[in-house]
């Protein structure tokens, strides 16, 4: 299981495995938001549809 995590509105969301999630985040603190959970491919599909990149933002 993977999670798409948003720490703040200024930073882009991260994809993190659930083992690392529980090592780095405390769900009771409410200092982050889980936007999606699923397989790695589902998380990448979610990120691609929710946060599309256009050619002007790519380096």
Tags for this model:
3-stranded antiparallel β-sheet, 59 residues, alpha+beta, 2 helices, 25% strand
Protein model, in words:
The chain has 59 residues and is α+β, with helices and mostly antiparallel strands. The chain has one domain.
Overall SS class: alpha+beta
Strand order of the largest sheet: 2-1-3
Domain count: 1
Work out the helix count. 2
Determine the N-to-C terminus distance.
31 Å
Uncertain ranges: none
Our estimate of the beta-strand percent is: 25-35%
Provide a concise account of the structure shown.
The protein has a three-stranded antiparallel beta sheet with strand order 2-1-3. The chain is of the alpha+beta class and 59 residues long.
Fold blueprint:
Blueprint: E1 2-6, E2 14-17, H1 18-24, E3 33-38, H2 40-50
């Amino acid at each position: 299981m993977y999670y798409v995590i948003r720490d703040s509105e200024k930073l882009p969301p991260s994809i993190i495995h659930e083992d690392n999630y529980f090592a780095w985040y405390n769900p009771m603190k409410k200092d982050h938001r889980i936007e999606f959970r699923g397989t790695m491919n589902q998380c990448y599909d979610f990120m691609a549809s929710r946060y599309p990149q256009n050619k002007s933002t790519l380096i």
